[in-house]
Every structure is written in structure tokens, then in C-alpha cells.
Amino acid sequence: MSKSTENMKEPSSAGHKIGTVVGIVLCILLTPVLIINITLIIRSFTNPDKVPSVGHFFPLIVLTDSMFPEIQSGDLIICRTAEPENIQVGDVIAFFDPAGNGSSIVTHRVTEVTEQDGSLFWKTKGDANNADDAVPVPADKLVGVYSRRIPGLGHAVMFMQTTAGLIICVVCPILLLVGWDILRRRRYEKRKQADTDALMRELEELRAQKAKQEEDHHQTPVS
């Protein structure tokens, strides 16, 4: 194989390897996200009365600044499930608002733990609010305990839940990835074919040279 053919093959092989690595990395990153989303969706349907969780953890999107500055509107917070008897004063808990419609979730800090008729109740308050919440939270309204937050990610998650967000953040990247993979494979096959053609030309040239040498040898007069 000539030097020019080797030079053509090296970038082709390198590009193919890079593309393969990129594809593997994307699969590694996207597969856990897909599994978590599917798990949350299935659990939300099989147990609609509870917030779906994975490994005792679940995400929530913060809509108000009642816990400012520790937690802010637009943050994505991660909470973990907990037993009511383990909740203490100072814990930030997520709970179904007893003064709401029964489905809205509030994340506030526990200011007092009380007991009425053998049942646990918590007085709660938003850090940015001037007074405790009007209605104590019964233990059966507990959803979980705040663990950590990811600033601003809630805005992105809410956008992804819209039609435009789904198209921009999910459909377009998938189409681009598939299109790029198809283009990469076609370029690889084209370069591979070019290498094959170059090799065949070299073989033909070698055959032609050999044939000419043999012809010259037979035509050389013997002294």
C-alpha cells in the first residue's frame, strides 16, 4: 500500500473510532435518565396517591420563594422519603398542603413537633415568611425530607415538559444524533471504498509493470 493510501485510511479510521466513542458516551448518559423517567412515570400511574421515587429519592420543582434564600423559585430540589417519627425541628420537609387542594406539595421548615390524640403533627414555616403556616401538617401528609437543590434546573425541566421543549430538547437532539451517525457511516464507507479503489489501482499498476518487465525480458536479444 502506498503512503497516500495509508494517509487516507488513518483519518477515516480515527474518525470512525471517535464517532463510536461519542455514541457510547451519549448512550451511557441518556440510558440512566431514560430508565429513571420511565420508572417515575410507571410509579405515578400504579400509585397515583404518592409522589413517585427512585431509590427513596424524588425530584420536585420549586415554584415560589417562600424558602428564600436557601431554596429559590425555579430550583430543582431532591428529597428523600422518611419516617414521620424521624422528623425533627429544623428539618425542611415536603408535604401535601393540608390547607390546599390535597395534591399541591409545599416544602417548608419544621418549627415545632406536636402530638394530638396519639398522632404526630408539625408546625411549619417558610424561611421567607413572617409567620407559621396556618394549618399544622399531619404525619400522613408527609412526602419526604429536603436533601439538596440544583439551582435553576426547575425552569429547564418545566420547559422540557412543554411541546416546544420536548421538540427542542429531546426530538431534535435524537434526530441530529441519528443524522450525524448516518453521515459518519456514509463518509466512512466512502473513504473505505476510496482506499479499496486506490489499492486496486496499485495492484493493476504492479501487474502492468510486471507484465512490461516480462515483455522487455523476452524481447531482449541474446548476444
Layout: helices, strands, pairs:
Elements: H1 3-46, E1 57-61, E2 76-80, E3 92-96, E4 105-116, E5 119-125, E6 137-138, E7 142-150, H2 153-160, H3 163-219
Antiparallel strand pairs: 1-2, 2-7, 3-4, 3-7, 4-5, 5-6
Q: What can you see in these coordinates?
A:
This protein is α+β, with helices and mostly antiparallel strands. It is 49% helix and 20% strand. It contains three helices and seven strands; from the N terminus they run H-E-E-E-E-E-E-E-H-H. The chain has helices at residues 3-46, 153-160, 163-219; strands at residues 57-61, 76-80, 92-96, 105-116, 119-125, 137-138, 142-150. The protein has a seven-stranded antiparallel beta sheet. A hairpin with a 2-residue loop joins strand 4 and strand 5. Helix 1 runs antiparallel to helix 3 and helix 2 packs across helix 3 (163-219). The longest helix is centred in the C-terminal third of the chain and has 57 residues, at 163-219. The radius of gyration is 33 Å and the shape is rod-shaped. Residues 1-10 have low confidence and may be disordered.
